[in-house]
Amino acid sequence: MAERVPTESRAEAFQRLMHSGLRLHQQRGETALHDCLIREATETTGAQRVLLVLKGSTGWQIAGASLPAGEDAAALLPLVTP
User: Which of 16, 26, 27, 80 is the right S-S partner for 32, CB 3.0 to 4.6 Å?
Assistant: First the structure.
């Protein structure tokens, strides 16, 4: 059974989601959108690692990443793709 979330927390979560959507919508160009998406995912989840992987005509490709210093996105790619 799902845990009940106080109404105020739901309202705050909705506001955060709405503002994230607006920021994403304002981006112009692929690179700006990818950077914004990674930033939003990092801030929303508190993740230490975010890897944006897209499937292109030549297979899975890294569109962007936010990783701790010294970590390599290319080394993580085979670990997160089918």
Answer: 27
Apex CA 50: angle with CA 47 and CA 55, to 5°? Answer: 150
Contact 44, 16 (CB under 8 A): yes
> Is 49 part of any domain?
yes
Question: pTM of the full predicted structure?
Answer: 0.74
Q: What range defines the domain where residue 31 resides? A: 7-80
What pLDDT, in 10s, does the model give residues 38-72? 998 888 888 999 999 999 999 999 999 999 999 99
Q: What is the pLDDT of residue 8?
A: 63
- C-alpha 65/C-alpha 74 separation (Å) is 10
69, part of any domain = yes
Examine residue 2 and state whether it is found in any structural domain, yes or no.
no
Among 34, 44, 33, residue whose Cα is nearest residue 65: 34
